[in-house]
What we know:
Elements: H1 2-24, E1 31-34, E2 41-45, E3 69-74, E4 77-83, H2 89-100, E5 117-119, E6 123-126, H3 146-149, E7 157-160, E8 173-176, E9 196-202, H4 204-210, E10 215-216, E11 219-220, E12 226-231
Amino acid sequence: MLLLLLLLLLILLLILLLPILLDDAIGLAVVFDVDVADDAAKPVFAFALGGGGGGGGDDDDAGSEGDPTLTLVTNLGEIRILIYEEDSPQTADNFLQYVDDGFYDGSDGAGATVFHRVIPDFMAQGGGFTADGAEKTSRDPIANEALESGLENLRGTLSMARTANPDSGTSQFFINVVHNAHLDPGSAQTPDGHAVFGEVTSGMDVVDEMTEVATSGSTPVDAIVVESFARD
């Protein structure tokens, strides 16, 4: 009888505390990217939350004189980008090779990519799918440089998308629209971090607009297409 009474008290306590626990929970959930062609779920971020902190800005220690600049033109507008070739050399070189090969804008003959996943107060992600939902064939994955560079996922930074395996990044990337501290190296949610390799120097209004378009799930209803992407 005493055991039953203790059990009932424990259940009552859990019921009372549950709303508080849920309100304060961080939520270590894998965020899934949905293939816009067949709705097959595949993980892209490891332990990434749906939102992040406010503010953000350029990392004062990131970028070096002589780092390459790029111009990304989408059907929503133009974005200028600085690539951190010195701070994140392997990630930067991997990304630049995709740019130079015409992978993103379709000048490789295999179709232009789209920003296929956009979430307000979080990020805009692209670099893997065409407007018809086909996944482009990428090169082998690269090692995650997040811990080596120590760069934070501040508003306006470009960062590598990956699965739960830290060393699984290929062509997909995202642009942070807030400081997503939970994606920084050493964070509780993603200790290995997501490797930052560049920043938007102009055109963040275009990126913000991307995250405000009508979506089905997190996929834009009207495709956000990469029309051209090249070095300056």
